[in-house]
Specification:
The chain is 1% helix and 65% strand. By secondary structure, the chain is mostly beta strands. The longest helix is centred in the first third of the chain and has 9 residues.
Length: 633
């Protein structure tokens, strides 16, 4: 425990501060199954641009990194179809020309839940039902109104559903131990997005793009268990209206100037309740409406054949709190040799809403909740310093190394001792810093191809200790702080992706991932609180005693996938049957730990022995073989 400690240490780019853009529109939940699968069907993706730091002024409202995803336009010449069917899921993408344009439709759905619950479950013992599925749909229509004018209508719709039902055991009125009910956990989260885009070319040096988009993101988390005080009821709904326009002007061979205007309105409904305790209650009259007004100016300047400078500034006005923030940024790229580039960048970045994850609540760690910063808190600010180089050994091999350092201010954490009727108690404030490096070695051609990536990241966060109120008996008490590794502090990540195409029709692919364990707060004991129930009997309520925050780590994440496929044709169709084994080593990757507080035993004389809480790890999927076929025509 420390009071206003020195501002030290480290913070990587994390999903909590990352902006995910699909065709220039923010997507609030970019993953299925807690990050195991991407939300986006790769058959519909044209390009992915990742900026881990120092990103240009055209991107705003993010303080860590930006992933900009561009989807395909659709084939305007002929009909084209591709898809795949396997034991786990199916996907289908259709492209077709229309007068003066094209249309693209893409969809995907997992159905292992249906196969297991209808075909496998009746033949195995037990009442387990596979609880999870997801789907996503994407559509895009492009129409050229004139040779200089094009309009695009696109939509994205996806949902995750996790519905867990377990038998609840207990004693009935006759004191018989049997199933007395069901424990239910229901989690649903997903995105809806509809976008209208107009692009117009004024002349060869000037063109503009205007977007109007509406979207909705929702998270719903409900539990119905035997202990009423443990029931969870959480909602987070965001309705997003966005109007933005970007202009590009080629002033000369040396200057490319971009400028634009963003207008956003976000309506937030958020509440988070466990048993009778409600931490956040922003619903009904207390729901939040946030408005953003942003303007940016960016110049790409080729000073010489060896040196490029990108500089600019972004201005944002935010209505909640009436905040106005300028974000200046600059990036340099210098060609040291024909095959070596050096990169430097720095800038200021502000974010006006916050993604938080109540990391000490095991099940809630599955979801992220979004909260708009208001006049009680300052916008999150970061200063980035990035440096790196790229080295092309030849047309086949590429090496890149990039290091970063980021300083964060005005960070927030949920105050778990706060009350919904005391607004000042919702969040705790603090700061953090981050440093790390990214290494990538890529081989693009030949029979053997793939890439090797390694990242080293250091993260620490300094946040106020949880408090019941910032004022006690009208006296200001000194605020105490704690420094800890947040639950996204992944120290080492190593990924190897490789393919082997010996020639002919066979292909072999593999992917291996090692990631050091994430921090967690273990339960080291319990306390029993005694109180009378409605019948006058004394009832014991077991409550956990936690170790220092995130003082231990989960085991390392290890996953190795292999697959083999063969290309062929049947009735004019291009087919690619495949066989895949996911997690071939059957490594038990722990998602989180469950702790049994009522660890009670009896000795030989019938005396009660109270033991330490027993821990059980909740793992991700085991070894999972599957087969199927991809097709194209």
């Amino acid at each position: 425990m420390i009071r206003r400690p020195p501002r030290s240490t480290l913070f990587p780019y994390t999903t909590l501060f990352r902006s995910i853009l699909l065709d220039d529109v923010r997507i609030y939940n970019p993953y299925h199954l807690g990050g195991v699968f991407s939300t986006f069907n790769t058959d519909a993706i044209k390009n992915v641009d990742l900026s881990v730091g120092g990103f240009p002024p055209r991107y705003g409202n993010a303080v860590s990194s930006v992933i900009a995803i561009t989807t395909k336009e659709g084939n305007s010449k002929r009909f084209e179809s591709r898809g795949g069917i396997s034991l786990l899921s199916s996907k289908l993408t259709l492209e077709h020309p229309i007068p003066h344009g094209s249309i693209l439709l893409s969809g995907r759905r997992t159905y292992f839940d249906y196969i297991y619950n209808t075909a496998i479950r009746p033949h195995v013992n037990g009442s387990f039902r596979f609880p999870y599925y997801f789907y996503d749909l994407h559509g895009k229509i492009n129409v050229e109104l004139t040779p200089n004018s094009k309009i695009t209508l696109s939509g994205f719709y996806g949902d995750d559903v996790l519905h867990i039902v377990n038998d609840r055991w207990g004693y009935d009125d006759a004191n018989n131990y049997r199933i007395i009910g069901k424990d239910i956990t229901d989690i649903r989260l997903g995105n809806r997005s509809t976008t209208l885009k107009w692009r117009y070319i004024f002349n060869p040096k000037l063109f503009a793009q205007t977007i109007f988009a509406t979207s909705r993101f929702r998270t719903r988390f409900d539990t119905n268990v035997g202990v009423i005080d443990d029931n969870v009821d959480a909602r987070d709904v965001i309705h997003d209206l966005t109007l933005k326009s970007d202009v590009t002007y080629f002033a000369s061979d040396k200057h490319e100037i971009k400028f634009g205007l963003d207008l956003m309105r976000l309506d937030f409904t958020l509440y988070f309740k466990v048993g009778p305790i409600e931490w956040l209650a922003y619903r009904g009259k207390k729901s939040r409406q946030a408005q953003f007004y942003s303007f940016y100016l960016q110049d790409d300047w080729k000073i010489s054949p060896l040196l490029n400078v990108q500089s600019g500034v972004r201005f944002t006005y935010y209505n909640l709190g009436k905040y106005f923030r300028p974000d200046p940024r600059v990036a340099l790229r210098y060609r040291l040799q024909d095959n070596i580039n050096l990169k430097l960048s720095c800038g200021i970045f502000n974010q006006f809403f916050y993604t938080f994850n109540p990391e000490d609540f095991d099940y809630i760690r599955l979801v992220d909740l979004w909260f708009p910063i208001d006049e009680r808190y300052k916008p999150i600010r970061a200063i980035h310093y990035n440096a790196g180089f790229e080295y092309w050994l030849n047309d086949d091999y590429r090496l890149s190394i990039e290091g970063y350092y980021k300083d964060y201010d005005h960070l927030l954490d949920l105050n778990e001792m706060g009350r919904e009727d005391v607004d000042i108690d919702d969040f705790l404030t603090g700061w953090g810093r981050a440093a790390g490096m990214e290494f990538l070695f890529k081989k693009q051609q030949g029979k053997i191809y793939g890439w090797l990536a390694y990242s080293l990241a250091f993260v620490e966060k300094t946040i106020q200790l949880a408090r019941a109120s910032s004022r006690i008996e009208n006296k200001n008490f000194p605020r105490e702080y704690q420094t800890f590794y947040p639950n996204y502090d992944r120290r080492h990540t190593l990924t190897l992706v490789a393919g082997y195409h010996p020639g002919g029709k066979w292909k072999f692919n593999t992917r291996f991932t090692f990631a050091s364990g994430l921090p967690e707060t273990p339960t080291v004991g319990w306390k029993a609180y005694y109180e009378p129930d409605d019948n006058g009997n004394i009832r014991a309520d077991y409550r956990p005693v936690k170790a220092p925050k995130n003082s231990e780590r989960l085991p390392a994440y290890i996953r190795w996938d292999v697959s083999v496929s063969r290309e062929g044709k049947l009735f004019g169709l291009s087919l690619q049957p495949f066989f895949q084994i996911i997690n071939i080593t059957n490594h038990h990757n722990i998602f989180f730990y469950n702790y049994n507080l009522s660890s009670v035993e009896w000795d030989g004389q019938g005396n009660i022995i109270y033991g330490k809480p027993k821990r059980r790890g909740v793992s991700m999927f085991p070894i999972l073989p599957t087969f199927g076929v991809n097709f194209k025509f």
